[in-house]
Every structure is written in structure tokens, then in C-alpha cells.
Amino acid sequence: MRTTDGSLVLGLHRSGHARDLLESAADLGITRLDTASNYLSHRSHEVLKTTAGDLLPRFSVSTKVGFFPEGHSLDPVRLHVAVEQAFKELGREPDLVFIHNPEHSAASAETLADACSALADAARVGLCRSWGVSTWDPRSLTDFDVPRPDVLMVRAGLLVGIDVLEAAEALAARWRPSQLWGMSPFGGSTAQNVWQRFDPRVFLRGSPPASGSQAAFRSSYALPRVAAVAVGTDNVDHLRELTEALAYEVDDNVVWEYRQLLKARQFT
Fold first, then answer.
1. 8-266 has CATH 1.10.8.60 classification
2. Model confidence pLDDT, tens digit, residues 120-143
3. Which of 195, 235, 247, 267 is deepest in the core (most CB within 10 A)?
């Protein structure tokens, strides 16, 4: 099966940016790559251009700025320069640039709003095509107002706690992004013991012949409800397995029951 709807985003966190993986992703119809200025020891952009420069026109590329070699910063000038640098290193304007985990430095609503305005300005002058916010833990951001982002990216999947899940949904309701994306659907790795202790296929409708990884991945689109999920892998077979999972349907009733269990556990 090939996917061309863009709902699976190949994340390059912890990736070696190998050309054969990117070629396979393109052959599978994956149209989006997601990276960050600090990935691969702050060399992700230049390595991506070197190893896959001729392939990049086949992808929409999103990246993130905010983590610098000396630490995290939401200084608007630094963020603007970082977007300029991403443009130069990739050899093209990024299709989407996120503020990376603003909760690390967002001491006030004004701090974050100024940072968002810097990215919005970068998009306006053609340094990137759109902008957004990527947050690992949105709980400290839910009372902040910012310019409306094109995309908000949050953690998604069965391992996201109810407090983070509800905070992400509250943030999406407040900021009204054009799209909500998910990330880290396996909580870091499919090799964690938790995936051996239960069968996530219960979350799929119609008992399809899916693997546990496929069921966990497909379920992440409903926790919270997102338009796309960024997932990282250097294994082509695993990537193919995940593209095939998009054909399955999530059982919304089971998801609702699971959320009720999470809420009940929160207060025990």
C-alpha cells in the first residue's frame, strides 16, 4: 500500500538520515519529513541536504527552532536568524517551521507571543511557508494567547497521560491552529515492555489482521484527534508496516472508554 495523503510524517529524531530510508519513504508515498535544527548534533539540515538533496523536492519538510548549542531560547531575533539558517542549510525554504518545546523558556504569555510573531514574520517574508508550535508538555501553556499558528504538534497515542492529553486539546481549542499534528506515538520505542503487556488491537474497528504496532500507531490519530502523526524509524520494514496501518479504522467507542479509564485513574 502507498500513502500520499500526508498523514504519516517521517520524523528524523534519532535518525541517521540514511538515503536508502528516504528513498524508501518516497517510494511508499510518504510526502512529509520532520526534523529540527538540533537533531543529529545540530547538523540535521546540512546532512539532509547532502545525503538527499535531489530527493527533497519530493517532500514537504518541517523543522523546529529554539534549541541552540548553548541552550533553549525564545528570543525573537535568535529565532528569526535560526529560520534564515535553516533556509540556507536546506537549500530551500522549509515548508513549516515550529517553535520547539516553548515550555522550556516561556516565562510569560508575552514571551511566547513575541516568539510566535517572529516565526509568523519569517513566513510572511518568505523564509518559510508556514509556522507552528511543537510542544512536548503543553500544560504550562494553556493560559497563553498567541498569534494563530498554522500547525500545533503535540504528543499523541496510548502512552500520553490524561493531563497532557487534555492540555493539548485545550491548547488547540484556544489557539485554533489550522491543523493539529501528533508525535511520538510509541512513547519513544516499540521495544518498551508496555507494548508486550496489552494488545492495542482492541482499539481497531472490525478486528482487522493488524499487528500490535500497527494498532498502536493507528490509535494515536485519535488520542488526541490529529490530522497527521510524526513517527521516527530507520527500519524500512517498520515504516512500510506503519503506512499499511492507515487503512484500518479506530473504534471511537473504545477510545472513549479508554479515556474514561484514564480520567478515573487520575483521581485514584
1. no
2. 999 999 999 999 999 999 999 999
3. 195
